[in-house]
Amino acid sequence: MKARIPALASLAAVAALLCVLPFTLSDYNVSLVAQVGIFFVAVLGLNILTGYTGQISIGHGAFMAIGGYTTAVMSRDHNTNLVVTMVMAFAICFVVGLLLGLPALRLSGAYLALATFALAVSVPLLPLQWSKFLGGRDGVQTAKTVSNVWLYGAAWAVSAILFVLAWLILRGRVGRAFRAVRDSEIAAVASGIELPVYKTLAFGISAAYAGVAGSLFVLATNGFAAPDEFGIVLSLKILIGAAAAGLGTLWGVLVGAAFIALLPTVSSSVPVIGSSHGQDVVFGAAVILVMLLLPGGFAGLLTQLRRLKRA
Amino acid sequence: MASAATSRLEGLRDRGAALGGVVQPVSLLLVAAAAGLIVGSLRSAIFAQLTVQGLALGAVYGSLALALVLVYRATHVVNFAQGELAMATTYVAYQLIKWGLSYWEAFFATLAIAFVVGAVLEVVLIRPVLHRSVIAAVIVTVGLFILIDGLVNWVWGGDFKFMPSPFGTKIYHVGGVSIARLYPGMFVVVIVSVLLVWALFRFTKLGLGMRAAALRPAESALVGVRVEWMLAIGWGLAAVLGAVAGLVAEPSQFVLQPTLMQPILVYAFAAAVLGGLESPAGAVVGGLAIGISLNLVVQYVPAITTELQTPLAFAVLLVVLLLKPSGLFGHREVRRV
Amino acid sequence: MAVNRRKLGALLFALIATAAAASAAAASHSSTPGVTKNKIVIGGTFPFTGVASLYKTIPAAEQAYYAYVNAHGGVFHRKIKDITLDDQYDPSQTPGQTKKLVEKDHVFAIVGSLGTAPILSTWNYLNKRKIPQVLVATGDAYWGQCVHHKCPASKTAKPWTLGWQPDYPGEAKVYAKYILNNKPGAKIGVLYQADAYGQNYLAGLKTGLGSHKSQIVDAEAYNPTDSAQVIATHLVKMETKGANTLVIFATPQPTIFALVDRTAIGWNPLTLVNNVSANRLFELAAANAQPGADLNGIISSAYTASPTTQANLKGMKLAKKIIAATGNQQLEQSLAEGDANIVYGLAVGWTFVDALEHAGKNLTRAGLMKALRHLNESGKNANPFIYPGMTVKTSKKRNFPMEQLKLIRWSGGKTGDWHSFGKLYTGIH
């Protein structure tokens, strides 16, 4: 109980900081911090799946695509309220995630990695096939676009809600079941946990989070959804964000999201590596270094620092 | 101890079987498919043309798939950077030729460089995370993917380059079929390389050591196999096969550019899974099957457009994973607790 | 333990605050964004890398022209600064890069940005903010059709967007005319890009063929990222459907693939290539790629002067001088070998500076648009880089700055060149 008070205090500090930021930052930087919020949601979702039930997914960009196109198409065709489209993206991706979670039951490790990779590569090709409805290469434009401040507010409000939701889910019975599945499936079954239920549930929740992130992601590109936005690199980024955050913890997610959202932008303004490919080099190298040097991600780093202090 | 040794031997025999002999129904299927292709080619010039092209491309998929399988058998890692590594080594060949080497000098120099790079990557980047988790190793290869892609773009630029083709510009005309010498050339180079790697595994002491290290690391170490060396060599050989894939893929794309291997990697994954992630022969056959069938399906099945080629390859991948996760050639893997 | 977290929070805050301060300092305080007493900042998005990177000499040439103007005193003593960003011809990257230009670099206008899909992905954003998006490097009819009212591509008018080059449907109609006159019974196979750019070309060809449009026996859509094999698949399909005429509506890289594929599969139809891929450099690339394309007799069109066959024109001499002044030897060599895109870039730069001069000393975004909607580059004020005798003109009734084309044909094989022939087509579209 005692440990929780400082934790809550730092949470409040982060929240307060986020409330103040839009008033001090330039419009462009507000949009950058909004990006962090969007990736926060996606990484949080993947963390529930990979970090808590041990199922890898290289396909979360596909769920973001589904969520993003939900928002774009609903707004284009029916001028639906954008917040409503986010809820729809959540619901649709939850169902799709559950359905895809069923075949995933049979797979694990490298095989699951390949299957989800297949998903990440294939889904963005579908708008090209059904170009009448999904716009093809010309993309889909929402009827309404939003300002950077609107986006910032939406991204962080959604982040806060989904963070609390994740915390509520993971602290209880479901969370214990998830962790049991990760640590040993056989032991989990032996202790009466219904493996299929919890594994697919984790897939559904995780996909739903990615869906909402996708919907915000489309709003961040001026309401324009196009296939290449959701390419394989996006899926890889989310996975990297989750790994950098530290799988199986919620606290590192903020740093993990900032890592993938800001590093490319920050490194592009450093003169020597300023080219668009210099940032890829920095990003790739940073990913490898984080994996090699920080086994527990940023969350693990914090724990280590804490231990050092005590010693 | 005795039982461990016996099971080791059995295991090795199993591998040999997977390399040489083929499971019965699957071999029947392959013979039937080959017969179908020959009949079709005799009846239609276009069919023949597509088959030859598909065979050449399939060989490229197969050789990259084989590289993936070698890495997977050695370290149980799916190397997402395998294609980019192959692309980067092709740029090395481009640079060597630009510096004045002849094509084939550059070809073999590149293979040597690829071997060293592959082995070093295993030692420096993969080994430290290997004991941790599959996910950690996968993410390191993903980071490597981004890093290599960025480096190549940085050093050579993203616009495309021209390399001399080792196969010349000759186009054969056989009974109404036009076939650029390129395609049979690609096929031969890949198949020769694959056979050499196979011979290395099958007939040399090093090959035996590598198979043993991949299969039973602990016991192999007991009988004096330097397991860590073997894993590194496995990665090196995979990089060499990848380099071959890159070098022959380049003339088939007419130009060299950083995206050279990305579509090929996608099909190589499908090929590796189709054949069974642990089966080298399966990877090559899987590559050929995917190369030919994709080329033919798009031409003859109206509902399958070129946009659906990749999703189709992956649909195959998913179905195989779900129905027979060990692939057409693999052996059922026992799930370890 | 919480101390660490707080430290981290403080660190994060410090980082962000620094970034904010830096960008605030860079923000301009003039009433018209991007315009100060001695500077005009403009920007554009181009494919420096990726599938359409063969176009990257266009922004280089535009910058070379601005450098030339700056060296001669600028426009009303203002030097032009052109910030160009890479969007890889990928419409999903253009919005982010355009946003950066507008919100971070505070550009006065987006000038010359390239690609139909990239423009479509950003014109809502720019028109809503009343930021000029002008002289875009794409020839879709939208840029002329959507000025005052809604059109097929947009529910609202787009008065802040303006094209420059002859429009694609009009160009396709010229090809249709050529085919009907020279190969009346032709069975036509069309290779077109699977987006608005390709579809507009295809629609133009159908309109141009009129009652003969059933002569199109196969129209195959490709994607810009398709490999040479996929392009070959499309050509084989056309061949099997009996096509004896090939029309290529494609960007440079797929065009090169198609030209080589055509030879590799042993097919030799009458071939027409759209203007954006008719650049001597690209055709030479196709001839030199393995196994090498056979190019003689291929037809296309031009509206800029040729730096090789018309090297003696005043404008081409000027072009050589301007490019030489950049000190960029690669660019110089490209021009010498006949890179039409360099001439294109110079011509666009010329029109932009022409408009700036007419917009007057008190430069505003609306003033620039007004000048651009009343262009008259003919006679003494003729654009020196376009095909001799053509004019660049806009008015209340005319929203397409260029409406003329000349047909060209390739001869001379692997070391050959484009040669113009026939009459000057006027008033296309």
Q: Could you give a short description of this structure?
A:
By secondary structure, chain A is mainly alpha-helical. Helix content of chain A is 77%, strand content 1%.
Top-tier CATH class of the largest domain in chain C: Alpha Beta
| Cα-to-Cα separation, first versus last residue of chain A | 23 Å
Number of helices of chain A: 15
Separate helix tally of chain C: 15
Element string of chain C (H = helix, E = strand): HEHEHEHHEHHEHEHEHEHEHHHHEEEE
N-to-C span of chain C: 71 Å
Largest interface: A-B, 46 and 46 residues
What general form of chain A does the structure show?
Answer: globular
Lateral strand order in the biggest sheet of chain C:
2-1-3-4
Rg of chain A, rounded, reads: 19 Å
Oligomer: heterotrimer
Which architecture name of the largest domain in chain C does CATH use? 3-Layer(aba) Sandwich
Strand content of chain A: under 5%
Structural class of chain A: mainly alpha
In the predicted model, the low-confidence regions of chain C spanning at least 5 consecutive residues are 10-15, 17-30
* Largest β-sheet summary of chain C: 4 strands, parallel
The pLDDT mean of chain C sits at 89
